[in-house]
Design a protein that fits this description.
- By secondary structure, this protein is an alpha/beta fold.
- It has ten helices and ten strands.
Length: 319
């Protein structure tokens, strides 16, 4: 993606998500993410009528006069966006790739945070940590977050010349090569990085297609310190194949290539069942670990799942 195209996409996302934040998400974000509660500010002499539960008994004992603790509401939050930019995120069968959907979601969240004077940070990861932008406030910073999600590593992948052998075996062997960090996904490493760079509690959205294994414990560990929300982004063609006959497919993250007969109804049903099981299994494992889960279809709305999530959190907070 060229620099000019990236800037154009950023402007399009800014215009579209700006309206959505103003019209739909303005109150949802603030009502759900209220701040960390009350923060201690100082002690002052007791005044008749003060709540006796606020008396600071240590200071009272030292001075011989009653003192109470004074608290102020700590409203400002820190929003950390953890965006997966591995090779599989570049896939898209409709108008947008999964990476573009990730950028749009990050824009919605970043602009919502900006309207509430909260800080926004960004971590781009794949098999390793690609880039870290510390949390800051402001519209310009929010736009930078969107630009980086779209731009980083989005150059055209290196082409691999196919083997001259026209046979299937020769074609497949031409694609077998060691995968690099850009092609892999390591969510566990991303969570370790989050814990190493943030000392205060953050609201952390992990946006990925979650094509990884054994990351649930890392998410659960991070969730004990932070408020972690997992956002799964999928493309329709990952969940269901059309019947188009023999198709050669290459896995973006392992470089493994195979031929599939999509004309087989049994094969298509097997793929659909496995894909549905992956999504439902991931949701069950994360919810069991106390991690909120959002599923976004790259061919559908980004706003609607986010609104449903905000409404669910709001209902839960009232219980």
């Amino acid at each position: 993606m060229l620099a000019r195209e990236i800037l154009q996409r950023v402007r399009e996302i800014q215009v579209r998500t700006g309206r959505q934040v103003a019209d739909v998400l303005a109150g949802e974000y603030q009502s759900v993410f209220r701040g960390r509660g009350m923060e201690f500010e100082e002690v002052r002499p007791y005044i008749p009528g003060d709540d006796v539960r606020t008396i600071d008994w240590n200071v009272t004992a030292r001075t011989g006069s009653p003192y109470v603790k004074r608290y102020v509401e700590e409203r400002q939050l820190t929003l950390m966006l953890m965006a997966d930019i591995s090779a599989s995120q570049d896939f898209g069968s409709a108008e947008r790739s999964k990476r573009e959907v990730t950028a749009e979601l990050c824009a919605l969240l970043a602009f919502s945070a900006t309207r509430n004077d909260d800080k926004v940070g960004l971590t781009l990861f794949h098999g390793e940590i690609e880039q870290y932008i510390p949390p800051r406030k402001g519209q310009k910073h929010a736009l930078r977050v969107v630009r980086e999600v779209l731009a980083h590593g989005a150059e055209a992948p290196e082409t691999v010349e196919p083997a001259r052998d026209p046979g299937l075996r020769g074609w497949l062997s031409s694609w077998r090569r060691p995968r690099v960090a850009r092609e892999a996904t390591d969510i566990g490493r991303a969570m370790e990085f989050l814990l190493s760079v943030t000392s205060r509690k953050t609201i952390c959205f992990v946006v990925s297609d979650f094509l990884d294994d054994g990351f649930e414990q890392a998410l659960a560990t991070a969730n004990r310190k932070h408020d972690v929300i997992a956002v799964l982004v999928t493309d329709p063609r990952e969940l269901e194949f059309p019947a188009v006959g023999l198709v050669a497919l290459r896995d973006a993250e392992t470089a493994e290539a195979r031929i599939y007969d999509t004309g087989s109804a049994a094969f298509r049903q097997q793929v659909a069942a496995a894909a549905a099981a992956r999504v439902s299994g991931l949701e069950h494992r994360l919810r069991s670990a106390g991690i909120d889960f959002i599923h976004i279809d790259a061919a559908g709305s980004v706003v609607d799942p986010l609104v449903r999530f905000f409404q669910m959190r709001e209902r839960r907070s009232r219980r």
